[in-house]
Every structure is written in C-alpha cells, then in structure tokens.
Specification:
It is a single chain. The protein is α+β, with helices and mostly antiparallel strands. The chain has a single domain (3-67), classed as 2-Layer Sandwich (Alpha-Beta Plaits), CATH 3.30.70.100. The protein contains 2 helices and 4 strands. Strands 2-3-1-4 form a 4-stranded antiparallel sheet. Strand 2 (31-37) and strand 3 (42-47) form a beta hairpin. The protein is globular. The chain binds dioxo(di-mu-sulfide)dimolybdenum.
C-alpha cells in the first residue's frame, strides 16, 4: 500500500542538485510523489517503491542517501 518514506541525502549543494535527485527518484517504479528539501537534506517519497532501489538510483545519480528514522 502507499506510504511516505523519508531519506537523508548527502552531496547536494544547489537547486539543480535537488532537481537531479528528484528526477532520479521519480524514475523508480512505484514512486508517486517526491519532495526534496535542500536545507533539511531530506527526501519525502510517497507511493510504494522498494526503498533500496530508490537509494541505488540516488547513488547512481552521484549523491548519497540513507534511510532516515
Ligand atoms: Mo549545482 Mo549539484 O551547480 O550536483 S548541480 S552543485
């Protein structure tokens, strides 16, 4: 079922980084919406994606991500 998952990001320094991370996340199967906050270094992801696949996509885009409790 759909839920909201939060990741803690690293490596973002500007708004274009935010756009790149959001694009990478949106391409993962099951993602409905994404909200990346540069100041907080968080990504809020709604839908039902495999979170490890999301993390892999972010890393492939050149950034860091870990599960935020
Ligand atoms: Mo901004 Mo981010 O110039 O990888 S795009 S630093």
């Amino acid at each position: 079922s759909s839920k909201v998952q939060q990741l803690l990001l690293s490596g973002m320094t500007c708004a274009s980084c935010v756009a790149s991370v959001e694009k990478a996340i949106k391409q993962v199967t099951g993602v409905d919406t994404v909200s990346v906050n540069l100041a907080e270094r968080t990504a809020l992801i709604s839908g039902n994606p495999d979170i490890k696949t999301v993390i892999a996509a972010i890393i492939a885009a050149g950034y860091g991500a870990e599960i935020s409790e």
